[in-house]
Design goal:
single chain, about 450 residues, alpha/beta, Urease, subunit C, domain 1, TIM Barrel, eight-stranded mixed beta sheet, 17 helices, globular, disordered N terminus
């Protein structure tokens, strides 16, 4: 049984500052509907959408659109991007400003719900100590012991960081039980031989991951698989995982190809038939490539999402990676980015179950800035052939269903949690709508974007 205190900490209630509210004469855009509901009135009481409420607190929605808040089903929130624990201790004021701002940056971009794919209760409690903060849930990271991503951390630190690691079928089942008891709503496991200097890492057997899947499903938890290559995604299909937590950067059986081969097409068709969730995470590789850019930290949008003190620290303490020229980096990453784009385009065209996830931040990089990274991901998806309507669905109802939260969020319906966006444009028609948010409503609490933007 989940400890009552853990449960209470994980389940959102009415947000602090929530009040009865009526939004009148607004156009409702909700993913379960075939079209907009015009001149509608939406009432909110105790943080939820209700049929009617008596209140003098009203927002005039003439000319505006009301949509569900967005969900990012792939984030990592434990650390300030590109800051180690030691650096946080060395620069406490900069770290504190960053930690205070990052939750607001997700909200500023329209994200009222986040799923941290590798976390533990203590890290979640630290994240939720800020105000305001998106509704946040976590997956337990079921890593194969000493494989990816544990290999990035020294022993014995890695064992404390990954309490749900496993070595065989029975320990895999026990790991799922522990994370369920800790309040996780999903499982994240991994199939990754590695990259760069670490390219021969141990990986779990099919039997082990199948045991993870069976135990997770018995506990009502969906299973994400870190799988960025064709070998890994075929493995995931065989194991019965629910969601591929990356797009296809590595075509193991056609490593230099950038146009679909019969083998790659066959794999993608299997993804469609199995109705497996698929996160393109297209902004991951640009987030690595842009570390070589001399101009990245001068992007004028950055100051909306990150404190200026943190941006200045990146310039001085981290700086541009000069091991490659910017031109060389673009050439190195181009093929991998194109492969992901081609695969995403094919799946979008064939109505696959695409889920919106950004992997923010994907690693030690300042070029996956919280909030802004999601807007960049949306543009990448448009460039890959997804329509704004497909992106809207992927970031709302599809994500809510994938993590079994669709009874609570993902649509604008009576009984749902009042996580909503009031916008100037229809988000099912243009991704530009998310840059024109009028109000963010979090559990009935009305937030002004001017109070969320970085100072």
């Amino acid at each position: 049984m989940i400890n009552r205190l853990v449960l209470l900490a994980l389940v959102p209630g009415a947000a602090a500052g929530a009040q009865d509210l009526r939004i009148a004469h607004v156009t409702v855009i909700s993913p379960e509907r075939a079209g907009p509901r015009r001149d509608a009135t939406v009432s909110i009481h105790d943080g939820r959408i209700v049929a009617n409420v008596r209140t003098t607190n009203e927002i005039d929605g003439h000319g505006l659109f009301l949509a569900p808040g967005l969900i990012d089903s792939h984030v990592h929130l434990n650390n300030v991007p590109d800051m180690t624990d030691e650096q946080e201790q060395q620069y406490p004021a900069i770290a504190r400003a960053a930690r205070d701002q990052i939750p607001k940056s997700f909200l500023y971009a329209g994200f009222t719900t986040l799923i941290d794919l590798i976390s533990v209760p203590a890290a979640m409690a630290r994240w939720k100590s800020h105000d305001p903060v998106p509704d946040t849930y976590f997956c337990g990271g079921a890593a194969y012991k000493d494989g990816y991503p544990m290999n990035f951390f020294p022993k014995p630190q890695r064992y404390a960081m990954f309490p749900y690691a496993f070595t065989d079928d029975s320990s895999a089942v026990a790991a799922v039980a522990r994370m369920k008891a800790d309040g996780a709503i999903c499982v994240k496991t991994f199939f990754e031989h590695g990259f760069g200097p670490s390219h021969d890492l141990p990986v779990p057997t099919l039997s082990m991951v199948t045991s993870v899947v069976r135990a997770a499903h018995a506990a009502g938890l969906p299973v994400f698989l870190h799988a960025s290559g064709t070998e890994a995604q075929r493995f995931g299909l065989a194991a019965g995982v629910d969601i591929m937590a990356h797009g296809l950067w590595h075509w193991n059986d056609a490593p230099d190809a950038t146009a679909l081969t019969p083998s790659i097409r066959g794999l993608l068709d299997s993804v469609v038939r199995a109705h497996v969730g698929w996160q393109p995470t297209m902004q991951v590789l640009p987030g690595e490539r842009d570390l070589f850019s001399a101009s990245y930290l001068s992007n004028p949008l950055l100051v909306r999402f990150l404190p200026s003190s943190l941006i200045d620290w990146y310039r001085t303490a981290i700086g541009r990676d000069t091991t490659m020229t910017e031109e060389k980096a673009r050439a190195v990453y181009a093929g991998y980015i194109q492969r992901d784009e081609v695969a995403t385009e094919y799946l979008a065209h064939h109505h696959a179950r695409i889920l919106f996830g950004t992997d923010t931040p994907s690693g030690q990089t300042y070029a996956n800035p919280p909030g802004l990274n999601a807007w960049m991901e949306m543009q990448n998806l448009v460039d890959a052939g997804m329509t704004p309507a497909q992106i809207f669905y992927a970031a709302t109802l599809a994500n809510a269903q994938a993590v079994h939260l669709d009874k609570d969020i993902g649509t604008v319906e009576v009984g749902k949690r009042a996580n909503l966006l009031l916008l100037r444009e229809d988000p099912s028609q243009t991704i530009r709508a998310y840059t024109g948010i009028v109000k963010v409503i979090l559990g009935g609490r009305v937030l002004d974007p001017r109070d969320l933007v970085a100072k």
